[in-house]
Specification:
With 114 residues, this protein is α/β, with parallel strands linked by helices. It is built from 4 helices and 5 strands, in the order H-E-H-E-E-H-E-H-E.
């Protein structure tokens, strides 16, 4: 039993990041296929956590062109998550928070799947 626990700990980490709606649906389809091979950490707006029970997740601020001021807090939240978790890759389906995570991840030398 201890061996199984150590195997799951040694799986590479992926940060899966999305905004609500269609991007979230696409991301969950992708992550369902990857969950046996990777430890997936989710970063999505808070309202999505109520719909699904996710093990490891972080709440981030979503933003769009209507509320550009939210970009700054979102950048800080994503940077904090990336520095704390140190994922091997970032997986996003193209939503605004995902683009920010990819941009910051590239600066930090993290691989990106977009």
């Amino acid at each position: 039993m201890t061996r199984l626990a150590s195997v799951s700990v040694n799986k590479p980490k992926i940060l899966a990041i999305s905004s609500p709606g269609g991007h979230w649906i696409q991301l969950t389809y992708l992550c369902n296929g990857l969950k046996n091979h990777y430890r997936i950490i989710y970063a999505v707006p808070d309202k999505l956590f109520k719909a699904q029970r996710i093990r490891k997740n972080y709440s981030i601020m979503d933003f769009s062109t209507d509320d550009k001021w939210r970009l700054v807090p979102c950048c800080f939240q994503i940077t904090r998550i990336l520095l704390k978790e140190r994922p091997q890759a970032i997986l996003s389906t193209g939503a605004a928070p995902g683009v920010v995570a990819i941009w910051i991840g590239k600066i930090l030398g993290i691989r990106v799947v977009f």
